């Protein structure tokens, strides 16, 4: 603790701090009494139970947000042990230590826990059925967290976009700089979501859970409002980029069958966000607004 702090400091551990969501958690606007601890994977490997216990012995954390994960969906098909270590055993270790410390754990999860066969927007109570190793490993992490620490929230999100690291939006801009046309899958539908908005939602939940022992727990969905296909998202990115003088290409929609990948993906992974709005007052903005904000950050007006 800080000896001369004029108020009690709220220490929060954020794992996966170098990831898309982690970087947005770092630049979110936190209350002055919150002190974030954001170890890199080298500094704190989630799968190392002893290292996690040492970190907990050193600091009286008030909450943990786990945004660290093995996120290589296709590679996970062959790196099964690595995916389950980070996505299932890591959260299990965090559940154990947070429960022992009596503090809340907020775990980020994925739309890929669903098989995508439904026509509806998926609610938290809908049956899960992951199509691949990544989704299965994340589902195992959900179970470990919700059963391991009763003061926990699992927040599923989807199609994460940001100005950081590798993601679909950045890939489309990079490819458009070299090619006149892009062929993009048009029969998978989901909810593009800004890592910044995910970070804001996680912040709201963490602060409420720290202050209110009776705060709602369980599984929640958070995505930006509305939905589209990967081809629809690509077309929107191209339009936004062109309007700012950035790279642009025409988008041709293709079926999934024409773009085979090692991991199968759900054809519908739209998530219903009614519950998080009802319980936490979090109201997602439209995905097009979120995408426009990221494109504007990547292609500043001054480059026009
Ligand atoms: N990306 C998506 O489209 C998407 C969609 C739905 C849900 N999600 C979920 O959203 C969350 C955040 O995703 P993201 O896009 O921010 O992921 P990301 O950019 O891939 O970042 C993940 C972070 O976790 C770290 N990490 C991996 N294994 C670790 C370990 N054993 N110990 C400690 N840290 C470890 C990575 O370290 P390095 O920096 O060393 O790689 C990286 O910093 C994850 O739970 C993911 O499953 C993502």
Automatic annotation (TrEMBL):
<dbReference type="InterPro" id="IPR029903">
    <property type="entry name" value="RmlD-like-bd"/>
</dbReference>
<comment type="pathway">
    <text>Carbohydrate biosynthesis; dTDP-L-rhamnose biosynthesis.</text>
</comment>
<dbReference type="Pfam" id="PF04321">
    <property type="entry name" value="RmlD_sub_bind"/>
</dbReference>
<feature type="domain" description="RmlD-like substrate binding">
    <location>
        <begin position="11"/>
        <end position="298"/>
    </location>
</feature>
<dbReference type="InterPro" id="IPR005913">
    <property type="entry name" value="dTDP_dehydrorham_reduct"/>
</dbReference>
<dbReference type="InterPro" id="IPR036291">
    <property type="entry name" value="NAD(P)-bd_dom_sf"/>
</dbReference>
<protein>
    <recommendedName>
        <fullName>dTDP-4-dehydrorhamnose reductase</fullName>
        <ecNumber>1.1.1.133</ecNumber>
    </recommendedName>
</protein>
<keyword id="KW-0521">NADP</keyword>
<dbReference type="GO" id="GO:0019305">
    <property type="term" value="P:dTDP-rhamnose biosynthetic process"/>
</dbReference>
<keyword id="KW-0560">Oxidoreductase</keyword>
<comment type="function">
    <text>Catalyzes the reduction of dTDP-6-deoxy-L-lyxo-4-hexulose to yield dTDP-L-rhamnose.</text>
</comment>
<dbReference type="GO" id="GO:0008831">
    <property type="term" value="F:dTDP-4-dehydrorhamnose reductase activity"/>
</dbReference>
<comment type="similarity">
    <text>Belongs to the dTDP-4-dehydrorhamnose reductase family.</text>
</comment>
């Amino acid at each position: 603790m800080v000896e001369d702090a004029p108020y009690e400091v709220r220490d929060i551990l954020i794992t996966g701090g170098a990831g898309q969501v982690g970087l947005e958690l770092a630049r979110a606007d936190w209350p002055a009494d919150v002190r974030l601890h954001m170890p890199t994977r080298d500094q704190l490997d989630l799968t190392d139970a002893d290292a996690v216990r040492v970190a907990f012995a050193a600091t009286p954390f008030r909450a943990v947000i786990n945004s660290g994960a093995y996120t290589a969906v296709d590679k996970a098909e062959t790196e099964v042990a690595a995916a389950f270590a980070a996505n299932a055993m890591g959260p299990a270790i965090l559940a154990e230590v947070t429960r022992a410390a009596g503090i809340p754990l907020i775990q980020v999860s994925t739309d890929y826990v669903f098989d995508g066969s439904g026509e509806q927007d998926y609610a938290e109570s809908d049956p899960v059925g992951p199509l691949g190793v990544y989704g299965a490993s994340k589902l195992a992490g959900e179970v470990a967290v919700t059963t391991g620490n009763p003061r926990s929230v699992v927040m599923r999100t989807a199609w994460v976009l940001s100005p950081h690291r590798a993601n679909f939006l950045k890939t489309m801009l990079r490819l458009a700089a070299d090619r006149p046309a892009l062929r993009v899958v048009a029969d998978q539908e989901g909810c593009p979501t800004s890592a910044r908005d995910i970070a804001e939602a996680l912040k709201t939940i963490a602060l409420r859970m720290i202050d209110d022992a009776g705060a709602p727990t369980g599984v929640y969905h958070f995505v930006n409002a509305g939905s589209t296909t990967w081809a629809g998202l690509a077309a929107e990115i191209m339009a936004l980029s062109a309007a700012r003088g950035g790279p642009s290409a025409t988008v041709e929609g293709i079926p999934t069958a024409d773009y085979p990948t090692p991991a199968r993906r759900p054809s519908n992974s739209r998530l219903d966000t009614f519950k998080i709005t009802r319980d936490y007052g979090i109201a997602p903005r439209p995905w097009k607004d979120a995408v426009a904000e990221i494109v504007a950050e990547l292609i500043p007006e001054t480059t026009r």
